[in-house]
Amino acid sequence: MWQAVNATDMCCLRRVLHRDVKLENLLINRETYEVKLINFGCSDILRMTPYRSYHGTEAYLPPEYYNGGEYCGRPVTV
C-alpha cells in the first residue's frame, strides 16, 4: 500500500493527475513485491483549479464530482 501511495504522490509532485488509480492499474512483481502505477490513459496535467469533467472508471468517480460537478485533483488522489 505504501508503494501505491508513494507512486501517486510522485505523480502529483510531477504535476500529473492519474485519475484512474485502482487495483487493475497497479503492476505488482510477485518476486520482489515492487509496485508500479500503470495506464496513464485517463491522466491530465495536475492544476490548482477544479476539474469539471471526469475520465476514468465510473465506480471510482470522486464524490465531489458526483455531488457538485467538479473536483480538485490532489485531494481526490489522496
TrEMBL record:
Catalytic activity, as annotated:
L-threonyl-[protein] + ATP = O-phospho-L-threonyl-[protein] + ADP + H(+); L-seryl-[protein] + ATP = O-phospho-L-seryl-[protein] + ADP + H(+)
Xref: Gene3D superfamilies: Transferase(Phosphotransferase) domain 1
EC main class here is: transferase
Instruction: Give the matching InterPro entries.
Output: Kinase-like_dom_sf, PIM_Ser/Thr_kinase, Prot_kinase_dom, Ser/Thr_kinase_AS
Q: What is the E.C. number?
A: 2.7.11.1
Ranges for domain Protein kinase come to 1-78
Report the domain of life of the source organism.
Eukaryota
The Swiss-Prot or TrEMBL record describes its family as follows: Belongs to the protein kinase superfamily. CAMK Ser/Thr protein kinase family. PIM subfamily.
Question: PANTHER family per the record?
Answer: AURORA KINASE-RELATED (PTHR22984:SF11), SERINE/THREONINE-PROTEIN KINASE PIM (PTHR22984)
Its name, as the record gives it, is: non-specific serine/threonine protein kinase
